[in-house]
Amino acid sequence: MAQNDPALWIFGYGSLIWNPGFPYVDRVIGELPGYARSFCMRSIHHRGTVEDPGLVLALDPHPGTRCSGVAFGVAEAEAESTLDALRERELVSSAYLEKMLPLELSDGRRVKAVTYVVDPDHVQYCGGLDLEEQARIIATAIGGRGPNCEYLFNTASHLRELGLADADLDWLATRVAELV
């Protein structure tokens, strides 16, 4: 492995895209087969509270689908501290499961990446909410990292900038902007 070759890959499909919070040596568009991005997890820390939960994106297994996002390559020297920081951030309530999953990068490489997917058996899982209900929740919830709508707007706009527009997120961003 060359000095700047990534020792660890991280897949970002939500806030990691626009706020990774760790140093990286490579950043490439990637696709994760078999999973769909959706607001299927109640947020009781970062974008909501226990009393008034918000919603955050998670990956739900859906055979035949693909989720586009960003693969971040992390250098060997930063790998351990990056994983520690990500675990503190993403596993705060154990609603996510940390998995090493195969990614297909836009430059043709295939890598295994640390990916946080929802635990469908966790109390915070809420898959299947209709878009209007998601919009109402996102429009009002606020958590430790700020308003839930900010999370949605940032994610949707960064996906569009990368050419990875997500129809549900675009609809939600428009609807939530009307509600706030």
UniProtKB/TrEMBL annotation:
GO molecular function: glutathione specific gamma-glutamylcyclotransferase activity; transferase activity
GO CC field: cytoplasm
CDD domains: GGCT_like (cd06661)
One Pfam family per UniProt: ChaC
GO BP annotations listed: glutathione catabolic process
Source taxon at top rank: Bacteria
Protein name (record): glutathione-specific gamma-glutamylcyclotransferase
Organism: Meridianimarinicoccus aquatilis
Taxonomy of the source species: Bacteria, Pseudomonadati, Pseudomonadota, Alphaproteobacteria, Rhodobacterales
